[in-house]
Design a protein that fits this description.
The complex is a heterotrimer of chains A (505), B (311) and C (148). Chain B is an alpha/beta fold and 311 residues long. Chain B is built from 10 helices and 10 strands. Chain B folds into 2 domains: 165 residues, D-Maltodextrin-Binding Protein, domain 2 (3-Layer(aba) Sandwich), CATH 3.40.190; 115 residues, D-Maltodextrin-Binding Protein, domain 2. In chain B, strands 1, 2, 3, 4, 5, 6, 7, 8, 9 and 10 form a 10-stranded mixed beta sheet that branches. By secondary structure, chain C is an all-alpha fold. The longest helix of chain C is centred in the middle third of the chain and has 42 residues. The chains are: A mainly alpha (505), B alpha/beta (311), C mainly alpha (148).
Chain lengths: 505, 311, 148
């Protein structure tokens, strides 16, 4: 553990700690803006890190990344906008809580959950990186396909009300995700004569449209801000009582962070669905499933704790194997290469002090999120509450426009955002929740790519599709899919029978 | 100032600018048609500070990802101002093959003012370091006995990786199964996890992953200085010299003297980062002027011929 | 309103929209979208049948003033459309201010003085947004003829 001591010594200099503080703060505000992703913030920062030393450069990138993923929860809670795809599930409970006047409680809980998640991720990266990396490599195309199918079974839990409409939403989401150039074959699909549509529908653009525009229009229609029920002035002891509430669900926290860790080490699938899966599991195991969708603290904590695990989680395949697990990691890889650092075993031995210093700095970043988040969160929250709806509607609208533009510098994306927003509003009014559509959007490409690649990999087999069920891991995933479909039916049947017994008794 | 006064002022300044033009005098927008974090993006961000120093103006990098680059390329030919203040990164064979294979591509291969091609990444055939295939010959021999059972992962369809795999099949008379992935990123776990038998990737991957993979063959004309132990396809009797080129272009109609000024600046910037780039596995080239267009034509013809045989 | 019937019709319309957007794709590229289109179509039909057998009936677009929702949506559309040629600053200034006055007028009396003050606030807010995105985040916003 000499190397850890050396790392700590390197890390704890005023300069490095200041970088963590500033980086986390900047990340937080960037993440809080819908559409401004962690990837963008890191890209802007990257050239500056070339001129810095390796450790401070990496510290700056890591802290901004950590802060941005957490900052996404603010937009999710306050204006129903998933600031990053990973905070989709946060909107399900956070926004209803805010509407009911519990925004501050939601922000506090999200902060504590994020700190827990962030720290867990760092510990797992420190202690378990090699076995986790080996585990992540077992996922090939067939396994990716089944992961996507498993994700799609969440529709059952997410389509509040009508399962039929939930499934339709999922199918629509998948079709929208197909627009553009096909991942296999490179052909243009559903471009309707517009070259710009080759780029397809960017996930965040669709999410902003589907989640923000309907709320915006309702706000305009009623002339009442979404947070009208919130009072300014902190309820006394809110921090303490919320902390107690969050920490009194250790089972939920543990389950969520483990889900986050497992999902995030699988490169490419990770971050976006970790929150959703953790949320769904929390709901399944909950004693109060009826509160979900109406502002359940449990659901919020599940989503936020798991999505902050993914920051360090996606670093597992990056540092051990040189595989960027999520888009922001590619930029961190770029910075490492520029400083002559090559991922792999060497990083943890000869370069150990530096690598561990970087990992630990993410832990420090997770800790400083607590004060920064509570303070910054309050500021943002108060601003949103104070602003009258007549300003809030156009402000949120301009953020939605800027956010969807900034991602790819494309006006087409802004138009797609609005079009999907209006479609989403109409659908929502007739009982289609946006969550299954989002799920289809996220998982469609993973499912298709995995399926077609598996089919190709099995070319020399008598029945090529056998490739899909060949590996034990695939079979385990299939079992999980079956379980995910059958479980709700069984528990529903048992509940009904219990109700019947209760009545006849 | 009133709006009118301000407009007048702006117009006046603009006119003066035209009269005393000394390119460049304001921010240059360097568009990258791929996401932040990709190789094209990182190369551009490496060049950025040097370009700023050489040109004396700000250079901003704008990512306009989509359609494997096609969205930004089509936009650059349709609506970018040909004044030298907008330049766009271009990639071969992408700009050659996309218009051949797709509908609604929205741009033409040769309809750019090519500034310079500065980077070449030859294809590299990689296997995991514990793979039974020690040499290219062993892989070919195995594939002959077991047609279709050797799977080769690579980045995308109709890409340099894909075409090189097809060339290998034709030249060696074997039957391989090419499995396209969405970019070079996801190919690595597929190889390391044993989901494909080998990768047709690019030289930087061979350098980056050098302690986990073995390079069976590299598609450069001669061995590369930064990968001295990797044999070429050619020296093993398979005539494949191919890969991906990276360069930069201005929208059609950009004045020749401005393109020349940019060529100088980009070549100088490339020279300054050459050493770092080679360490990362990129071969540095300086193909500018008429040669730049010549290269595009060569690649286009070569790929058209191979894709023809596919149909 | 019978929301199941509307949902079913919408679903069928989207199915047809995607169906006719198909092209001449290779089998591997066509397999997945074709399957999902058929699934969406079948689900839409099922929903239509359900709307007939056991309909869900509830009011739609009932949370607030429908005219105002529609006009806000139109304003958003015009805002985005005008950004292309008027630039981010100008079109945002106009439509931000319009929306502010329009939504405020729903719940209170708006004097000319109010409007004046609000326009100034809006001008500053949009300028701040423009600054943050263009200068700090290096995003190239549509400039238009009057970019600051």
């Amino acid at each position: 553990m000499d190397v850890l001591a050396a790392a700590l010594q390197q890390l704890f200099t005023p300069y490095h700690l200041m970088l963590v503080l500033v980086g986390t703060t900047v990340g937080l505000f960037v993440g809080a803006m819908p559409g401004l992703s962690a990837t963008m913030a890191l890209a802007v920062l990257l050239p500056f890190t070339f001129t810095m030393d390796a450790l401070p450069g990496l510290i700056a990138l890591g802290s901004v990344y950590m802060g941005a993923i957490y900052g996404g929860s603010f937009a999710a809670i306050l204006i129903n906008a998933p600031g990053t795809p990973s905070s989709v599930a946060t909107t399900f409970e956070g926004y209803p809580m805010a509407k009911a006047g519990r925004a501050e409680e939601a922000i506090t809980a999200a902060t504590i959950a994020s700190v827990v998640g962030g720290l867990f991720g760092v510990f797992a990266l420190l202690l378990l990186a090699p076995p986790l990396a080996a585990f992540s490599l077992r996922f090939g195309p067939p396994e990716y396909f089944w992961v996507a199918v498993l994700g799609l079974t969440l529709i059952g839990g997410l389509s509040s009300g009508s399962l039929l409409k939930g499934l339709m939403g999922g199918a629509l989401g998948v079709l929208i995700s197909i627009i553009g150039v096909s991942p296999i074959g490179g052909e243009s699909r559903f471009t309707y004569g517009f070259p710009a549509l080759q780029g397809g529908v960017e996930l965040i653009v669709a999410l902003i449209g589907l989640f923000v525009i309907p709320e915006l229009l309702v706000m305009a229609g009623t002339g009442v801000g979404a947070l009208a029920k919130s009072k300014l002035g902190t309820a006394r002891g809110l921090l303490l009582s919320t902390t107690k509430k969050v920490l009194s669900m250790p089972g939920n926290l543990l389950r969520s962070v483990i889900v986050g860790e497992i999902v995030s080490v699988i490169p490419g699938a990770g971050g976006n669905i970790a929150g959703l899966i953790a949320y769904n599991e929390a709901k399944r195991w909950s004693k109060h499933p009826e509160e979900y969708g109406k502002g359940s603290l449990e659901g919020l904590v599940a989503s936020e704790s798991s999505n902050n695990v993914t920051v360090a989680g996606s670093m597992v395949p990056l540092l051990t194997l040189g595989i960027p697990g999520a888009p922001p990691d590619a930029l961190i890889l770029g910075a490492m290469l520029m400083h002559g650092l090559r991922p792999g075993a060497e990083l943890f031995t000869t370069q150990g002090a530096l690598t561990y210093g970087f990992i630990l700095s993410m832990g420090v970043s997770a800790i400083v999120m607590l004060p920064i988040g509570l303070f910054g969160g309050r500021l943002i929250y108060q601003a949103v509450v104070r602003v009258p709806p007549s300003f809030l509607v156009p402000t949120v609208a301009s953020m939605a426009i800027l956010g969807s533009f900034a991602l790819r510098n494309s006006m087409t994306d802004v138009m797609i955002m609005l079009a999907l927003g209006l479609l989403g509003f109409a659908l929502k009014e007739v009982g289609f929740h946006p969550a299954p559509i989002a799920l289809g959007l996220i998982l469609g490409p993973i499912a298709e790519t995995g399926f077609v690649q598996s089919r190709l990999m099995g070319s020399s087999y008598a029945i090529p599709y056998l490739k899909l069920v060949e590996s034990p891991l695939s079979q385990a995933l299939i079992a999980l899919c079956v379980l995910a479909i059958v479980w709700p039916l069984v528990s529903d049947w048992r509940r009904r029978r219990a109700a019947k017994v209760g009545r006849s008794a | 100032m009133t709006l009118l006064q301000r407009t007048l002022a702006i117009v006046l300044v603009a006119l003066m600018g035209v009269a005393f033009a000394q390119f460049p005098e304001r921010t240059i927008d360097y568009v990258i048609s791929f996401n932040a974090g990709g190789e094209s993006d990182i190369t551009a961000r490496l060049q950025q500070p040097h370009l700023e120093e050489i040109l004396g103006v700000n250079v901003t990098i704008t990512n306009r990802a989509g359609g494997g680059g096609a969205v930004a390329w089509s936009e650059s030919q349709r609506s970018m101002r040909p004044d030298g203040y907008s330049v766009i990164g271009v990639n071969l064979p992408h700009i050659a093959t996309q218009p051949m294979e797709r509908t609604d591509t929205g741009y033409e291969t040769e309809n750019f003012e090519f500034i310079t091609w500065f980077q070449f990444t030859p294809n590299a055939l990689l296997v995991r370091d514990d793979s039974p295939f020690q040499t290219l010959d062993e892989l070919i021999a195995y594939a002959k006995e077991n047609p279709g059972s050797v799977t080769i992962g690579g980045s995308g369809s109709n890409t340099a990786n894909h075409i090189a795999t097809l060339q290998l099949e034709q030249l060696a008379g074997i039957d391989l199964t090419y499995v396209p992935f969405t970019g070079t990123g996801p190919t690595v776990p597929a190889l390391l996890g044993g989901h494909v038998s080998a990768l047709m990737s690019y030289s930087p991957m061979a350098v980056l992953q050098s302690d986990q993979v073995r390079t069976l063959a590299i598609a450069s004309a001669e061995r590369l200085s930064f990968l001295p132990d990797a044999p070429t396809f050619v020296e093993q009797g398979i005539e494949i010299v191919s890969g991906a080129h990276r360069g930069v272009a201005a929208p059609p109609g950009t004045p020749a003297e401005i393109v020349e000024a940019l060529t100088e600046a980009f070549e100088e910037a490339t020279r300054r980062i050459a050493e770092e780039q080679e360490e990362m596995g990129f071969a540095i080239i300086y193909v500018s002027g008429d040669e730049a267009l010549e290269l595009v034509r060569e690649v286009t013809e070569e790929y058209a011929a191979i894709l023809e045989t596919l149909q | 309103m019978n929301t199941d019937a509307i949902g079913g019709v919408l679903g069928l319309a989207l199915t047809l929209g995607f169906w006719f957007g198909r092209g001449t794709w290779s089998p591997l590229a066509a397999m997945f979208p074709n399957t999902v289109i058929v699934v969406l179509g079948l689900l839409s039909l099922a929903l239509l049948i359900k709307s007939w057998v056991r309909p869900t009936v509830q009011p739609i677009f009932a949370d607030g003033n429908r005219t105002r929702m529609a006009l806000t949506a139109v304003a958003l559309g015009l805002w985005i459309w005008s950004m292309r040629w008027a630039g981010f600053y100008l079109s945002s200034l106009v439509f931000f201010a319009l929306l502010t006055v329009y939504i405020a007028a729903a719940s209170r009396r708006v004097t000319l003085r109010n409007v004046g003050v609000w326009v100034v606030i809006v001008a500053v807010e949009v300028a701040v947004l423009q600054f943050v995105f263009a200068n700090l985040l290096a995003v190239r916003l549509p400039a238009g003829p009057f970019a600051p």
